[in-house]
Amino acid sequence: MAEPGRAGPGDNRHPMKLDPISLRLFVAVMEESAIARAAAREHIAPSAASRRLAELESQLQVELFTRSNRGSVPTAAAYALLNMARGVLNDLDGIGEQMREYGSGLRGHVRVMANISAITQFLPSQLQRFLDQHPHVDVRLQERVSSDIARAVADNEADIGILNQGSYGEKIRLRPYRRDRLIVIVPQGHALARRRSLRLAQVLDHDLVGMHAGSALNHQITRAAADLGLQPRLRMKVTGYDALCLMVASGLGVGILPEGSARLYLGALPLRCIALDEPWAERQLMLCVRSQEALPPVAQLLVEHLCEP
Questions:
Q1: Cβ(107)–Cβ(135) under 8 Å?
Q2: Domains detected in the chain
């Protein structure tokens, strides 16, 4: 049988709710070795401090101090509670600190979607610098085509999107991100390899290795060719710039891609870069969000970091 006032094995009473203020006062009493000094440290009247300690003992159903005319002496239970109370209070302080960090943008996660042009040219170094400054932030990056990125941001599947400039509806807000330039790559020794610049019509005289049908680059080239009354001879379509460069280097056609992406492969592959002399070859990449104000603080920090010159 359980002792009076103590919970037995089958007791379904509610869990004990300890007051952090009382625990903090108890720790202060143990550290100051006097209730009066502890009460002053915690900004509480000595009588109120004594009352709180008595209530703590009653709640815990254990004697924490042996009281006499000479003062109060901690019991073995008090020393055991001291270690546990310090741990609890440290955890509570840690919760508050972490929540403040979330509120200030120092912790949390950000969902980012970006097209291949941004990922291969700009994002790696930018994200590295951001994560070096904010090591507790989790940036979750996915590659998508621009139209899918706009839709995902509008539907709250992503916090931040980076995509080609275009019209994507009123549900997202756009701001300039970076500019890039399209160039032509050909195998070394190709008939065009000695040219310093090329017009699209000259490129389309040759077989083309292009990006997949859903990509913004494919749409851009197809539309520009249609304006010239031409049809690209797409010998094959690939899903990444690495595959495009490998196919061109193998002599399977010529390619068009961003200059920054092409330069990743120039040292390893026998390729020649040639300027594309078209007004649309210089492109504007955009950053999109649903609403800057509605973003979590950590996402707002990342937006400002990405848009820095």
A1: no
A2: 20-103 (1.10.10.10), 112-178+285-306 (3.40.190.10), 179-284 (3.40.190.10)
Structure confidence by residue, pLDDT tens digits, 193-228: 999 999 999 999 999 999 998 899 999 999 999 999
CB 23 within 8 A of CB 85: yes
Q: Which sign does the torsion angle of CA 67, 73, 75, 77 carry?
A: positive
Would you call 149 exposed, middle or buried from its count of C-beta atoms within 10 A (0-12, 13-18, 19+)?
Answer: buried
CA-nearest of 184, 180, 181 to 271 is 184
Chain segment 93-116, per-residue pLDDT in tens: 767 766 776 666 677 889 999 999
d(C-alpha 245, C-alpha 256), whole Å: 10
64: exposed, middle or buried (C-beta count within 10 Å: 0-12, 13-18, 19+)?
Answer: buried
Measured distance CA(309)–CA(50) in Å, rounded: 61
The predicted model scores a pTM of: 0.70
Q: Measured between alpha carbons, how far is 102 from 221 in angstroms, rounded to an integer?
A: 44
pLDDT of 128: 97
Q: Give the tens place of pLDDT for each residue, 241-288.
A: 999 999 999 999 999 999 999 999 998 999 999 999 999 999 999 999
CA 302 to chain CA centroid, Å, is 8
